[in-house]
Amino acid sequence: MDKIVINGAKPLNGTVEISGAKNAALPILMGTILTADNCVIENVPEILDVDLTLEILEKMGAKVRRDHTTVEIDTSDILPCRSPYELVSRMRGSTYLIGAELGRFKKAKVGMTGGCNFGIRPIDQHVKGFKALGAEVATLGGFVEAKAERLVGTEVYFDIVSVGATVNVILASVFAEGTTVLENVAREPHIVDLANFLNACGANIIGAGTDTIKIKGVEKLHGCTYAIIPDMIEAGTFMFAAAAAGGEVKINNVIPKHLDSISAKLSEMGVYVEELDDAIIVKREGDMKSINVKTRPYPGFPTDMQPQMTALLCFAKGDSKVTEAVWENRFRYVEELRKTGANIDIAGDTAIIHGGTELVGAPMRSVDLRAGAAMVIMGLAANGRTEIVDIHTIERGYDNIVKKFRSLGADIRKVSF
Ligand code: UD1
Question: What CA–CA distance (Å, rounded) separates 364 from 372?
Fold first, then answer.
């Protein structure tokens, strides 16, 4: 097993390259099922969730060739209802197999999925969309099964803004007869990226990035070459680490617009943020101010930056509030952060951070992907030695995180034990 060991309180300086977005890569890789052709996907992050996705696709019959960040996938021989339960149950993103299998084969059978545990993760909105398109859907014995004689375009109004439901129903409706109109959809950049990829394969999707998406059914898709957008959450994590530890970091290969809510909060804290065309500079020398933050679907402040924000605010003088409005239980990591002396109270959906106290590195257990990132930020900025175990949760979604922080001058390493 591996752990991350950090000797903290050293400023970060230099330049770091951001990888492709995990939450765009997973739907796009699953989306290749729809093409029945050869796709070349570039800028794919080298993370465990991508390894798992490609393994699942191979087990279903796809031919996969991977050269670092470029993946070539031939899905001509893929078959539905064949994804191994033990693999799909490890990752939430495998839910997208339902939409992709249903879209291409009119039938799907996929194990109930796992991933980060921050409360109940229902799929009622996905099911609502599939049923509206004409599918029968059943959840039995740990599997979701869907089948349809025909998929017919329709209107779907989502009761909750859900990234997963938006992705899944787009995938299922690409070949549906007529026009499908999806309302109250998620507007995240990875939704736009998925639509752009599918359109590059010949789909007819308009409106991605707004709250209404229209999909005109097409007969078939062809293959294409497509590059995934940069990971806004990885970029945000490096921005917060630079602010917490101090120093000056240039974060390359980003789309600054995607980072607006993150940059705005850093500026409010008194941290210097400069936007360039495809890079962001974060510089912090003096004290940081306490602030209040509430998570929201995009373009609001992302829930996937919430734990990192809590860690950062431990280093800002005064009381801050972080309110979680997307997930019902996403503060499990707070108990771990408290081991450093962090003074954080939880009141319902809000963490109250009494910042600016003396913080000392501590042993911590990464309870999920972004929680682990928060612990890395804490370890980089707190005095003394931090050791983080269960780091596979971090490596699910961060590409070479240790190497990247080392290149910024951090005393961080991965140790086997
Ligand atoms: C995706 C991200 C995850 C991120 C989340 C919100 C991936 C692989 N994961 O997860 O990192 O935290 O978006 O930005 O991209 N909900 C329902 N019914 C449904 C679906 C969702 O009630 O059918 C609720 C959820 O319980 C949650 C909220 O809607 O409270 C948002 O969930 P959703 O956007 O679907 O998250 P995921 O797609 O699972």
Answer: 9
Percent of the chain at pLDDT > 90 equals: 94
HSE (CB half, 13 Å, CA atoms) of 39?
28
Are 274 and 137 in the same domain? no
User: pLDDT class for 120, splitting at 50, 70, 90?
Assistant: low
Give the total number of structural domains in the chain. Answer: 2
Best of 52, 88, 117, 121 to mutate for ligand 1, by most ligand atoms within 8 A of CB? 121
Residues 149 and 279 in one domain: no
pLDDT of residue 142: 83
Residue with tokens 């499990």: 332
Query: What are the DSSP E strand ranges found in 210-288?
Result: 212-216, 225-227, 247-252, 272-275, 279-284
| pLDDT of 329 | 84
Please say if 116 is a catalytic residue: yes
Asked if the model's pLDDT at residue 255 lies above 80, the reply is yes
pTM assigned to the model: 0.97
Choose one of 179, 201, 227: the last residue of a domain.
227
Residues in contact with ligand 1 by the CB-under-6-Å rule are 23, 26, 92-93, 121-126, 160, 162-165, 186, 303-304, 326-327
CATH number, residue 247: 3.65.10.10
Q: Is there a single domain that holds both residue 240 and residue 258?
A: yes
Domain extent, residue 147, equals 22-227
